[in-house]
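Hi there, hope your week has been kind to you so far. Thanks so much in advance, here it is.
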Amino acid sequence: MLRDNVDFDSLTTPFSTNEIDAVVNEMPPDRAPGLDGFNGAFLKACWPVIKDDFYRLCAEFHEAINDAMHNNNLHLPIPSGRNNQFPVIQYADDTIIVMPACRVQANCMKQILTDYADSVGLHINFHKSTLIPLNTPEETYKDIADIFGCACAQLPFMYLGLPLGTSKPTVLNLTHWICKAERRITAAMSLMSYAGKLALMNSLVTSLTI
């Protein structure tokens, strides 16, 4: 559900230096390095030296998308007269891009993503991405999927562990989540005594909404 008075315009503003600094500060220092060989500890240690270049890189990425929109290479999925910025929305390492079903715009967006990945020494696994068509002819969305080199799926789809769609999820849509919870509960109960199992079951039953 959406709260009232949400500032959706904040989704289209450029990345601030405070946001970028917060991301770097929260990076685990001991994780495996990326393709460039640098891990979180290196970035944190060298951040005072490289941060200005990184700020410019993020600004150029945001500018490239908006320049493409201003040049009519990209269009907003839902027309709006409130601002002239293209929304860039990301949660952790999961990104959803909402675009019109247009082959020209698909080629433009892939080029922007590829150029950005090349500039930071990363690699985008397009084959791990999924195209979710909505009211789009099969021939069109298959052509767009070929442009990105990704698979096609249908609504509802799983995002951050929950089903997303245009209608209320059914019990069948929640089966994956239910089975996952059941496996965890079964594994935990195998290590419990009879009294512990009874206490857990009482807690689960009393927490159910009737």
Observations:
- The beta strands are 90-91, 94-95, 130-131, 151-152, 157-159, 162-164.
